[in-house]
Amino acid sequence: MDLKALLAPIADDMKRVDNTIRARLSSEVALINDIGGYIIAAGGKRLRPALVLMSGRAMGSKTDETVLLAATIEFIHTATLLHDDVVDESGLRRGRKTANAVWGNAGAVLSGDFLYSRAFQMMVDSKRMEVMRVMADTTNAIAEGEVLQLMNVGDPEVSEARYMRVIELKTARLFEAATKLGAISADADEAGIARMAEYGHKLGVAFQLVDDVLDYVADSSLSGKNLGTDLAEGKPTLPLIHAMKNGTPEQAELIRGAIVEGKLENLAEVLKAVEATGAIPYTRALAERYSREAENALSDLPDSPHKNALISLARYNNARVS
C-alpha cells in the first residue's frame, strides 16, 4: 500500500501545511532557522498533520484553521524529536545525523523549546480555548511519558502494562490530539470529537507497536535505523517483554542482561529468542487489534474520501510488517 496515494485527498492541503511551517519557522536567530529547517527538511511521513487534515475534512471542515492546526501539531512533534534525540544520545534519525550530533545538545534542546513556544503562539491564533486545553494536556502527557520511559531504561522488570502506558502517553496522545484538533476545527459536536479522539488514540498505539516490531525485523536501508536500536538504548519494548515472559530461563536471562547493559554483543541470540517465543506475531496481533478498533471508531461517520483515507491508514499500518 502506497502512503502517498493514500494521502492523495489531502495533497493540496499538505502543500499548504508545508508553506505554513516554513513561514512560521522563521526566526531572527540564525541557529534556530538552521536547526528547525534541518529537521523539517528531513521529511518523514508527516502523519500527525495529515491526521489533523483528514479528520477535519472528514468531519466537514473547509477552513484554513485546519491547515494551521496541522502545522502546529508538526511543530510539537518536531520539538519532541529534538528533545528525544538528546535524551537518547541518538546520532542518526531517518538515515541522517540528528540535530544534536550536528549542533550539540544545547542547541537542539533550546531549538526544541522555540518550536514548542511557537506552536502555542499558533494555537492562540486559532482563538479557541478548546485547542489550547487539548494541547496543554497533550504536551503534559508527553512529558510524563518521556519521564516514565526514562525510568524504564535498563530495567528488565518492566511489565507489559507499564510499557503500554508509555506508548499511550508518548505516542497515542499526540495522535489523539491531532484527530481531536481536526474535529474541533470542523465545529464537531462532543460525540464527533470523542469518535475522532478514539480513532487517533487507537491508531497511535498501533503505530508504536509496529515500530517496536520493526526494530527487530526491518531492513535498515528502508527503516532508517539499525536492528536493535531500542535494545542498544536499554529500552524494554513489547517483543522483549514477551520473550522474557515466555522464553526459557536461559533466554530470559540473556535478554535481561542485554537490557541492563544496553549492548548489542548478543543481538543475534536475542533475535533468535524473540523469534522462538513468538514475540513478533504476538506484538503484531496486538497492533492489528488496535488498528481494527481505530477503524471501528469511524463506523458511524458518513462516507467520504477522507474517511476512507483514515480507514486505509489503519490498514497501511498493519501492512508495514506484512
From TrEMBL:
Check the record and name the Pfam families matching this protein: polyprenyl_synt
Establish whether keyword Magnesium is in the entry: yes
Q: Does the keyword Magnesium apply?
A: yes
Q: Where is the signal peptide?
A: none
This enzyme catalyses: 5 isopentenyl diphosphate + (2E,6E)-farnesyl diphosphate = all-trans-octaprenyl diphosphate + 5 diphosphate
The family line of this record is: Belongs to the FPP/GGPP synthase family.
One annotated GO biological process: isoprenoid biosynthetic process
This protein's UniProt keywords? Magnesium, Metal-binding, Transferase
Essential cofactor(s)? Mg(2+)
One of the entry's Gene Ontology molecular-function terms is: metal ion binding
Annotated organism of origin: Stenotrophobium rhamnosiphilum
- Outline what the protein does: Supplies octaprenyl diphosphate, the precursor for the side chain of the isoprenoid quinones ubiquinone and menaquinone.
Protein name as annotated: Octaprenyl diphosphate synthase
- Enzyme nomenclature, EC number: 2.5.1.90
Which class of enzymes does this protein belong to?
transferase
